[in-house]
């Protein structure tokens, strides 16, 4: 538990700017999430870094003016989850179609 | 089922550079919504045989395609030998080298049916998280071998230790659920060691579930790669000798030559995208090489425990679970 933390230093900057620290995550989640969140119109800045290659930590920065950073992060994760669901459904459907046409041809 | 034609964003491969399409503003300004994503994203299965699975993932961001590839390589679990108890090893292969070789043997056991070992699980493991094997081989001289025989197969018995010598030791009730053929080594002909008369191996092997990021032996795929779909266009007619020269510049089957000795693009898909054509001044202007920026051709080759399509689905599931875990943590705060 406690795989998600917040980096100190943003207390005066309002709720819109935060650096989140993901434990045991890397480029796989970081980059995927970044590409999604960076494309929300209300987000001013979004980026991620892995401060040290041997430390399993991911620093994820979000800056926005109106919305809370946590809410944006949550929305990003939810969108990524929905994207996964849609990918799975599409893939399974295509696989079924592919196998069906293969059966027909044999 | 015919798919609706879409605008393909291209990356042009010129002689010394890669150029974006002037009409293509890239990915930076796009706004992400699930509706747009659902409309754009397409998957089509191209090939699924013993050589592996090939499918197209179209209309996604590079980071998403890369995430799936990385997940297949290092975050989808599989079973592998983790501990090797060496009771006797008088062969010339060192204990640690032998143990490492044992670890790399691919096992058929379905990782979805097993649990990870935890801190609490006993040293010996339980039937839910552990598979045990033994390897007992002793090499001896064949009595019936004549003096004039020089072939090792004729004069020695068991002088080659193969993965087929591995014997599964069912733990608890495992024998009722699994069989040797569903958990054992996938290939029977992997050479583990060579022995000489008097050499002996006596090992007990413990296999557990693990992740590829911990050790490559836990990776369920032999390869999982993607590349962008190549596109080749002929700008003018190329015929005669030049047509054959053009054909030789590309991978076999990419360029065809018709009855009028004119070259045409037969199938650009399997081109390796070398820029060999640009070496010939007479062909320099004849072709436009490009790749479709958001058309990913995935190739997934399984080691054998899981089917490649299952590995891909498991990978997507892993990403989904990661997201869910973090959403739950945010909600709990």
Automatic annotation (TrEMBL), chain A:
It is found in: Nucleus. This is DNA-directed RNA polymerases I and III subunit RPAC2. The keyword Cell division does not apply. GO terms for molecular function: DNA binding; DNA-directed RNA polymerase activity; protein dimerization activity. Residues 19-87 form the DNA-directed RNA polymerase RBP11-like dimerisation domain. GO terms for cellular component: RNA polymerase I complex; RNA polymerase III complex. Belongs to the archaeal Rpo11/eukaryotic RPB11/RPC19 RNA polymerase subunit family. PROSITE patterns: RNA_POL_L_13KD. GO terms for biological process: transcription by RNA polymerase III; transcription elongation by RNA polymerase I. It comes from Drosophila kikkawai (Fruit fly).
TrEMBL record, chain B:
GO terms for cellular component: RNA polymerase I complex; RNA polymerase III complex. Gene3D superfamilies: DNA-directed RNA polymerase, insert domain, RNA polymerase, RBP11-like subunit. The keyword Aminoacyl-tRNA synthetase does not apply. Coiled coil: none annotated. One of its GO terms (biological process) is DNA-templated transcription. GO terms for molecular function: DNA-directed RNA polymerase activity; protein dimerization activity. InterPro entries: DNA-dir_RNA_pol_insert, DNA-dir_RNA_pol_RpoA/D/Rpb3, RBP11-like, RNAP_Rpo3/Rpb3/RPAC1, RNAPI/III_AC40, RNApol_insert_sf, Rpo3/RPB3_RNA_Pol_subunit. It comes from the Eukaryota. CDD domains: RNAP_I_II_AC40 (cd07032). Keywords: DNA-directed RNA polymerase, Nucleus, Transcription. It is found in: Nucleus. It holds the Pfam family RNA_pol_A_bac. Its main location: nucleus. Residues 52-329 form the DNA-directed RNA polymerase RpoA/D/Rpb3-type domain. SMART domains: RPOLD. Belongs to the archaeal Rpo3/eukaryotic RPB3 RNA polymerase subunit family. This is DNA-directed RNA polymerases I and III subunit RPAC1.
